[in-house]
Amino acid sequence: MPEMNLDTPRQTSYKPFPGRNIEQMPALIGEGRTPMTMFELAKRRIEILEIYNAVQRKPQNFPDEYRQRVEEVYHNLWDNYFDTGDLWLRQSVKQVENGKVVLYNPQVHEFLKTKLNPKVKIEKGALVLGDEYASFTGSDVLEFNKAYMGKHFGKSLSKQEAKESAFWRFVLGDLSGEYMDAVFSQAQQRFKYDKNMGIYVADAGDDPAARLWFVSGYGGGSDAYGNAILDVGGGRLVGVAPEARVAQKASAQTLEQRV
User: Fold this and answer.
1) Per residue in 65-106, pLDDT tens?
2) Is 157 helix (H, G, I), strand (E, B) or coil?
3) What letter does residue 153 receive in the DSSP assignment?
4) Residue 215 CA to chain centroid, in angstroms?
5) Comparing 2-11, 39-48, 155-164, which segment has the lowest mean pLDDT?
6) What residues contact residue 181 under an 8 Å CB cut-off, 6+ apart?
7) How far apart are alpha carbons 181 and 183 in whole angstroms?
8) Which residue range(s) make up the domain with 195?
9) Sign, Cα dihedral of 89, 146, 178, 156
10) Taking the CB of residue 144, how many other CB atoms lie within 10 A of it?
11) Looking at the domain assignment, is residue 259 inside a domain?
12) Model confidence over 90-146: pLDDT tens digits?
């Protein structure tokens, strides 16, 4: 059978930028790359799971080296957490403490390019905002009020709760059903988890603030965190090459051509 393209964050199209986000984001953008999004991470996890399951069903059809490579990519994508280019904006305690999920788009790109660097003001791990909160509007933005967050954030979710989550439906789009099925099925098989995909955010601070969302692996419940600390060394950004993003918009491909 044809060799599958197991392009991963370790290879050319998807390059890791580990370390402090305030340092690595400028490096990532400086290379002409864009940060991986929650949607893209979910897509790649679904794709490698499909290939992994195919190999597990009929291992005799694949060379040893290839089986090992599939398993490596599967565990890399599903067992690790990843920072993303999607934003979490939060009003201050002096305001009404609403929050906005902002999907990566050209406005976010310019914001990250100009604002996220080692010279910016960081408070409790977040980028301190001026009046930028109000400037993010449109179809790529979903705002939550404090009451909604208090009810639906800060806890692991059942599969039904995840499927009803406005947050997950928004960030995953048409992948939401397939991705949730994969998360809950695999988490049950591997860890006996019945609840996953919680949404966790930091408390409002003295100033409006911006953070990057990150998503944990299976062992962490595949949760989404809007409390990433931008100025510590544990960041796991992945830079997506322009040609990889173009390829995502191409017509449907065979299993051998995917990932």
Assistant:
1) 999 999 999 999 999 999 999 999 999 999 999 999 999 999
2) strand
3) S
4) 5
5) 2-11
6) none
7) 6
8) 14-250
9) positive
10) 21
11) no
12) 999 999 999 999 999 999 999 999 999 999 999 999 999 999 999 999 999 999 999
User: Is position 258 within any domain?
Assistant: no
Distance from C-alpha of 192 to C-alpha of 19, rounded to nearest angstrom: 32
Q: C-alpha 70: how far from its chain's center?
A: 21
Identify whether 1 is part of a domain: no
Nearest to 115 by CA among 207, 39, 19, 211: 211
Q: What residue type is assigned to position 106 of the chain?
A: P
CA 247, CA 226: separation in Å to the nearest integer?
29
- Cα distance between residue 158 and residue 148, in whole Å: 17
Domain count, the chain: 1
Whether 231 maps to a domain, the answer reads yes
Paired sense of beta strands 235-240 and 224-226, if any: unpaired
Q: How far apart are CA 70 and CA 76, in angstroms?
A: 10
Alpha carbon distance 129, 192 (integer Å): 41
Burial degree of 130 (CB within 10 A; 0-12, 13-18, 19+): exposed
Q: Which residues contact 113 (CB under 8 A, 6 or more apart)?
A: 26, 29
